[in-house]
Amino acid sequence: MRYENIRQGVFLSRPNRFIAHVETGGGVEVCHVKNTGRCRELLVPGAPVWLTESANPARRTRFDLVAVQKGDRLINMDAAAPNRVFGEVLAAGLLLPSPTLIRPETRFGDSRLDFYVENRSSRAFCEVKGVTLEQDGVALFPDAPTERGVKHLKELVKCVEAGFSAWAVFIVQMRDVRYFTPNRATHPAFADALRAASDAGVRLLCLDCRVTPDSITARGEVKIVL
Question: Is the pTM of this model over 0.70?
């Protein structure tokens, strides 16, 4: 996926989850942060960031903050990007060959899962999680407790019990991580639920991404360590 009208700036502060103050060549902009996670290790004062201009001229915040530089890594932090990236993976037939139906935001049981996809021989539900937390080359999810994430994993197990294929997909919004593992220190219940889902037949997939200031695309599979 690609962004239009990219502008570079310097991160100053984040008064709340939804907005950031960014220094640009034209002064200080109040920007929408397209990620409600903590992102404390990313949004530090002085960090280079990239903004995309909103297509809605009436919106209160003119720009969206979509990427940040952390050391030598460029990290996409747009929470909407992982679903769009994985949608491209599905359309290319890289999960189920020759898909005949790809339907986003499909309800199963008590949850709305990110994708339902089928081909002539398989039917699958997929839940996608974006990963922006990296420590010493290891990608971790979540960066804050997520009861909703635990609920989704339990729903994927019910999909398997109902005869569907089910996938928990982690899109690492950067490249060249050594492996992915659930963040047990932050949310042990999610780590336990991921292990239980895998044992119950839910398939796990982790992909890293090629990230530029104005694009993010799936790159390759990342090892998962439970």
Answer: yes
Tell me how far apart the alpha carbons of residues 194 and 214 are, in angstroms, rounded to a whole number.
32
When computed from its CA atoms, the radius of gyration of the chain, rounded to whole angstroms, is 18
What average pLDDT is seen over the chain?
96
Fold of the domain spanning 6-76: OB fold (Dihydrolipoamide Acetyltransferase, E2P) (2.40.50)
Instruction: For residues 87 and 107, give the distance between their C-alpha atoms in angstroms, rounded to a whole number.
Output: 17
Q: Per residue, what are the HEC states of 25-55?
A: CCEEEEEEECCCCCCCCCCCCCCEEEEEECC
Which has the closest alpha carbon to 182: 127, 138, 147? 138
pLDDT tens digits, one per residue of 58-86 = 888 999 999 999 999 999 999 999 999 99
Domain boundaries, the chain: 6-76, 81-221
